Amino acid sequence: MTVRRLDPVLVDRIAAGEVIERPAAAVKELVENAIDAGARTIAVTIAAGGCELIRVVDDGSGMSPGDLALCVERHATSKLPDGDLFAIRSLGFRGEALPSIGSVARLSITTRQRDAAQGSALVVEAGAKGAVRPAAAAPGTRIEVSDLFIFTPARLKFLKSDRAEAQAVSDMLRRLAIAHHEVRFSLEGEHVSAFDWPAEPFSEDGRLRRLGRALGRDFPENALPVETEREGVRLSGFAGLPTFHRGTSAGIHMAVNGRPVRDKLLLSAVRGAYADVVPSDRHPVLYLDVLCDPAVVDVNVHPAKSEVRFRDPALVRGLVVSSLKAALAGAGHRATTTGGARTLDAFRAVFSGGGLGGGPATIQRPNFGSTADWRVPEAHAQPMQAGFSDLAMPSADARAHLAEPPQDALDRPLGAARAQVHGTYIVAQTRDGMVIVDQHAAHERLVYERLKAERAKAGIARQPLLLPEVVELDPVDADRLNAAAADLASLGLVIESFGPGAVLVREAPSAIAGGNLQGIVRDVADALAEHGDAGSLERRLDHVLATMACHNSVRAGRRLRPEEMDALLREMEATPNSGQCNHGRPTYVELKLSDIEKLFGRR
To answer: What is the pLDDT of residues 390-440, one digit of tens each?
Structure first.
């Protein structure tokens, strides 16, 4: 068979299949060019999900007539002045985007440099380039792409619905807007939620405001700053609190030198950092930017440039994991501020809907016709004739009311314990509201963090059992425990084989020595079976520690004395990650007095 050169237009269309696989990819290439041109305002308009029309208008540096004629030629770029692929400091650099788009659509470019008297225009249709002609134009560049893939109709069959393609454009533009908060971005068109985000100052506060627009208005008050550097690699951004999580990974945003990426290495590092504090079926919300010398990262390993390859991946992964863990540990007892809002919404649903016990809700509204003022503070109101003791449920324990709370305790983040409800929840009073704590979930985290700290410091303290305990198991589970005996001993749990299908427990961690050893050993066997060799040794050991901590925590239904409740609150305030239990659920919710007053119509 004779070898021949492919037609240049056919070559461009083949390249378009790699670079421009859908409208969102075309928008990405055009917007990246605008950012590289120094634009401070970028406006995007789409129609039919981008298939009928893509318009990108920027106020960047623009192009001269000569540059305009050359920019639609294959492999023509202004991003590599010295041809060094190891010094890429721009988003685009391969010079494939514009000729690829022009080969599968109608491409119109109008541009003008800021100091030029007039602009220039060029049209490319099906790969055929027209002549550059003078045109009236504002400083910057205006690009219109119409009838995308009209000359390669087979590709249209693989596109999704207009709504899905429009959503992909919106998601892509949001990622670029997050990574470049100093640029104003706007989007309008069919099937998208239009937005117009102003340019923010090039500062930490500016970035946080942009993140609030992109990730939700609750994100800024539930975000932790991340700023670390190691061996020339710098990590900056904001990480959401563990209890501020979502059902998908769409809230995870990362960039490398300002380039948004969905890199497997970085995603794995994020999951590893949050594995101890977020439920396995939930995902954190964050933005991280890895800043490094372009020579130590290859951004050309993926056609869409969505993945990168680091020269030292272990360094980058370790930096991400350690930085995120340090930020989360520094958050201490903090839990998401949306917990109180969800609690109030639940109250409102009861008040306005089904009421209590499934019957219709009957709320006693204030009688505005009476002489009594229902807004009078409680301290000045007339005492009620009937005592609360006649109305309280048997499971409500108000013994904390026997003494006035210390005034300094009211100023503490978790306040002063006032009551225990249903033997499960601690109600604490703060200066400007109240806190409801799940005593089991909170103590579970406290025990877990104590065991981890002991292991990291000098090994977990263990206590020999006066009478070693025999635990009968499935033979497979027993073999799995015996194989991990050395690792378990480092955690304070000393076991040995006791015949087929049984192990003998000789020592246990001091913190859980009085717990249910039978249940602990069985759950440890399940934990080892679940993780096996898939996770790192540290992760498997942490899972075992979490299992042991759960068994020795204050159980739901146990009555606590006022001093015990206060001690639990103070220890939560001093313990890292105590805002969520070992399973990622919140350990407390906070209700502001102003919100409670609104609930009852006092505001």
So the answer is: 333 444 555 555 567 777 888 898 999 999 988 889 999 999 889 999 998
Confidence of residue 16 (pLDDT cuts 50, 70, 90): low
Pick from 103, 136, 101: which is nearest to 121 by CA? Answer: 136
Domains of the chain with bracketed CATH: 8-197 (3.30.565.10), 204-330 (3.30.230.10), 442-551 (3.30.1370.100)
Q: How many CB atoms lie within 10 A of CB 596?
A: 16
Q: 188 CB contacts (<8 Å, ≥6 apart)?
A: 43, 44, 45, 46, 194
Burial of 502 (0-12, 13-18, 19+ CB in 10 A): middle
pLDDT tens for 263-305 read 999 999 999 899 888 887 889 999 999 999 988 998 877 766 7
Contacts of 79 (CB under 8 A, 6+ apart): 36, 88, 90, 92, 93, 95
Question: Per-residue confidence at 533, pLDDT binned at 50, 70, 90?
Answer: very low
pLDDT tens digits along 160-206: 999 999 999 999 999 999 999 999 999 999 999 999 999 999 999 99
pTM: 0.75
Cα torsion angle, 76, 77, 82, 88, sign: negative
Token code pair at residue 515: 């717990």
Q: What is the predicted pLDDT for the residue at 118?
A: 93
Could you give the CA distance from residue 345 to residue 340 in angstroms, rounded to a whole number? Answer: 9
Q: Are 306 and 264 in contact (CB under 8 A)?
A: no
Q: From start to end of 170-296, where are the E strands?
A: 184-189, 195-197, 223-230, 233-240, 245-246, 252-256, 259-261, 283-284, 286-291
Residue type, 69: A
| 520 contact partners, CB below 8 Å, separation of at least 6 | 493, 508, 512, 547, 548, 551, 552
Q: Which residues of 543-563 are buried (b: 16+ CB within 10 A; e: fewer)?
A: bbbbbbbbbbbbeeeeebebe
DSSP string covering 273-304:
HHTTTS-TT-EE-EEEEEE--GGGEE--SSTT
Distance CA 555, CA 441 (A): 9
Token pair of 169, please?
């454009």
For residues 241 and 225, give the distance between their C-alpha atoms in angstroms, rounded to a whole number. Answer: 11
Give CA torsion, residues 371, 377, 381, 384, to 10 deg.
110
Q: How far apart are CA 313 and CA 553, in angstroms?
A: 39
